[in-house]
Amino acid sequence: MRHSLWILLSAMLCLGQSSTQQLPAADAVRIREFYHLAAALQDKIWPHWSDTPAPLLLVTDGGEFLTHRSAPPKDFTKVGDDLYARPRQFPTNLLATFPAFGPPSVIVIGEPANTTSKTSTPWLITVMHEHFHQLQNSQPGYFEDVNKLGLSRGDNSGMWMLNYPFPYADTSQQFTHLRNLLLAALAESDPQKFTKAAQEYLSGRKAFFGKLSADDHKYLGFQLWYEGIARYTEVRCAEAAAEYHPTAEYVALPDYESFADYAAKKRQDTLDELREADMGKLKRIIVYPWGAAEGFLLDRLKPGWRSEYFAQPFSLDHFFQP
User: Are residues 188 and 123 part of one domain?
Assistant: First the structure.
């Protein structure tokens, strides 16, 4: 989920401002391309990802359009084959995944121009990020087990996931040192030097987390596991899509960018974001590039790590034992 939670979003619902309209043609192309792209990529990155339902709700200025949902809510009207619409209720700039209508979780997303993606290809890769959240959310007992972390401190709204009082400013200096160790390991191409640099990061990570309170440790670990690995998945999807052959209708979109061109810069952009990050200023957002970079490191340290990812949820600690 991008900077939002399903409980929070439920509280943000507003009255529809306009009557439902037909799905714009360009949006129909993008949505079809997402399902083509997911079918081509998902199982290459995460085992059995294709087993996860992928309902999507597109939020436009004129209405909301729901697809791949077996039982649409009663306030939706069928407007096409596997397509349902209602007047707009969610913000048009939304990027989130949550059980808006009960399970399974739904990707709720605005059109590219209204989101941080801006254009079609980044938007599609962002939808893959959100689709990975559907895989996470679909694990047995996921939501109950998140509650059992005991981090809400009496907040039943779900806002704790965004507003948990983690000591970002107090740990900023230590994080900078740890971040530099991680980037140094990832930049090392010599196998022996890489092993040494990776071990230095593992030791530094253990020391960093060892100074946190038990709740702070759990919170940061959960965010790295959830959002960090979702960003990692986003990068891996972009890179896998470099070999993907898009449909002719997608290539014909006016804002088309080739997946190969986008993939060539996605990983480096994430590492640059981490390199320039100030933990005290970014706060929770730091987990996106940091967690992604830890995924890149695990690809080299423990190539089979993804097969164990869901076996010990809500933390990556067990992968990083010195």
Answer: no
